[in-house]
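Q: Structure for this?
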Amino acid sequence: MASAVKLSIVRGIKKVPGDTFSTEQGVTEINLLNTLGFSVAENGWIPKMPQLKGGGLWADTTASANDILLSTSFGRITETIKLTSTASNFLSRYYLVSLLFQYAQFARDFHTEWKQAEPVYLEWEAPNAAGPQYALIYTIDIVPGLDANTPENINELTITITREQFWPGISPGSNPKLWTNPVLTVAKADLQSATDNLFTATVNNRREWNAARSALTSQNHVTIPAASIPGDAPALCLITMTKTAGSNSYPDMIVGRSTKPILLDESGDEAPPDLMLNAGDAQLGTDCSTVADTGAPKSTGAATNIRGRCTFATATHIARFTWKDVATTRGYFNLSASRGSYICLLRARLSAAGTVVLSLTAQLANVLTLPQQTLTSVGAGGTGNTTEWSVVYLGVLTVPLGPSKIMVSDDGLGASISGDIAGGELILSASRTSGAADLYVSDLILIPIDECAAGLNTGSVNLFSTGSFIHFDTTGYFQHGQSGGIGIQPSLDSIGLTGQPIYLEPRVDNQLFFFCYDAATPQASIDGDYSVYINIVPRWAGIRDV
Amino acid sequence: MSIPTHYMRLFQKPAVGDQYISQYTAMNYKHKISALGGYDSASCDIAVHSRDEGLRFLDQFLGNRVAFYGNNPIAPFWEGFVNRMTFSFNGVQYTISLDEMSNSIITLYTPTAGGTTQTAAATATVKSALSQSLYGVKALELDLGLMISGTGTTLMQNTALAQRALPKASIKSGGGIDGIIHIDFLGFYHTLSWAGYRDATTGSVQLGNFVDTIIGGLVNGTTFFDNTDLTRTVANTSTIDKFAARGETTWDMLMKIREIANGSTYYVIGISPTDFRTGTRRFYYEQANLEIVYTTRVSDGLRIRNLQGQLVDPWLVQPNGGIQVQDRLIGWNGIGDNPDETWIMSVTYDANTQRVTYAGDDDQTAEGVFNLKRFNKGRGKAFGAARRLA
């Protein structure tokens, strides 16, 4: 251990350089690699790797030779460090032990008492590592190794530390911009600034292709490239959002993550994560047509704003709009390339009072129909971005429609995507049970929830008043070092997140899909242009390599 | 893959409002969902940081609405209200519950008038406006038996109200884990047992209309669900006499109607989950779904799959549908009921083991088969006939 660069027990969060009026307490530490003071005995500390809690959760059945692994999660790490302390006299030696005992109390109290708000953590920089790494400490137990009455000015003791299972690349509670800006100053610290972030993008509350189908002109997802997410453990992240002037603001938002690789479709093109399906791109069923509507998104290829319309000359429950792949034509939806579990939301409304029953069917070899839902809302009709569509929750769809996680072909070539019609269909069926209203459809929105998806529900406070920001945070910054996910709304009140906190998978592209709406009504328009700033804290199970 | 953390989202008491208050990680979570009632019961533990925080929780949140979320951020998988809490700290255990609370009391008695004619009587209802404004109406009928008319009946009534109007807390030494609040929840259908139903007039009514009448006349109105939304009560033209004077609760009456059915088909009743579109819950009275909706295999650890073979998350398994065991356990000669299939009356879920167990109705063959393999606990019928009063 003598060759380690740094090993300390630290308490507190560093002040940002240049912040002359900081209310942070700053840091204090116990250096464990002091020539006069603590030092780690030879082979006194071998950092452990995370282990599965309880070996994982298994289903044990006598009817099968093999147990079934149901679930896994990593537990905290408990490990020992053998220390020696060298002091100039007895009292100094006793003081070192007393100081360690006090830090142990700080560590426990940070998790159990309101009074202690400063995190206590290990700071470690291994030889030839890319930099320091940190681990939040939960408990420290101290076992002295020598008789307290011996006259030597040296002491041996063993401490047992329980710490978090992974090593973040910055200290707990720090501004996550520190990862991208190792020399973080007041000028760069602002989380509301569009600069100095790891990743910045724009998301919209709609998805549209250009007329040539060569690029998306608006989209509700961002892709964080693999190169931006080092480490080997799920990365913590801070997602900050604000709206551009003029955009609608809503009190509710969903964000879902997908890291499944983008597959090639049968045309040899990448089948992009295209999970907002416009009515203008659907195959039209009985009594259906498209109508110009500036409140609806542009359809692919035509690049004009159109909505779907069903007049219900035949009022029974039959297929009305079908989204499916079109041979050699980019920009259409390929169900077989879109494996995962999705919340399915439909933006639609009625032209007048009435009742329409809707259901979504997925057809891909097997057939799955979600439960029927009722639509009675006329939304708030208008032109352009003032149109408020009713948001209909159609249920959860899991693809592929079978016991496997991925479709495999019997052509012997392994994983496959079916092309053209065989690529599968999403069918919106509808029937009118009362009134004489037409059904207007804007788009079908799929938000992935099989990896992690979070909802921010403020109840009434609009998320994006002009100039205000919201944050989804798992870095611990907004909780001053405590772990767990949290949502922060514009008034800086924290609100609980429904669903699961958002972590990023390391070393793969991560796609985040967003949708903003008003759950109370429920309604949403296609209007909505939001700036997204993402900052991460990568983590490692072992020694940091980046 | 790790089990998605289960979160408890806490809201105001339904009689007070619908505002969100706070969110907690739910540990040791369990729930039961029944075809008769819907969300039936649940329990979990939450952690607090101090004695004061725990006592404040007990003081403020009894009766509050809760919703539990997993991996789906817009649809909870269980909803109900806080019925009972136990908090342990420093060797002391504090408990508070709605079980013994009553804020609307009537006494029934048969007055001894000295003659040979005895006619049942009842006092006027006394109530606690404060308690009802917080918790809704929870009624109690005290039967005093033979008792002369006079102040004794009303004194008894007022004494009971004074004692029961607000929930009581109790303290005992020992037990529990420090800093943990154990909470027991009930589904909203239990509030249908909070008031009685009476109609002293006779007359034939259609059962479907009778359900609508009972639901529409609830003393708690729209407090716990939207009793004006009758879109999930189906027609049933079979008739009974509407006379009801035995002191049955509203739930007893509805269960009686459900059991009578229509001479051929099984019915289910309960409170639906909160509708995404309306933000409200509804009462449902409809024919049971006897179609197979789930499959399972003993060799697969009895994990539940849908008809496409996809695994169903155990916290999402629902009753009121059929399940088929696909690796047959016993030979069946095609005569009588197929023991490999059963209609699911109720499901119980344990988050720690990720196990969901399901109970059929009175099909002992199916339950017995499962018991042989020790994958399901034996359980009796979840709900019997309506309570019969002498």
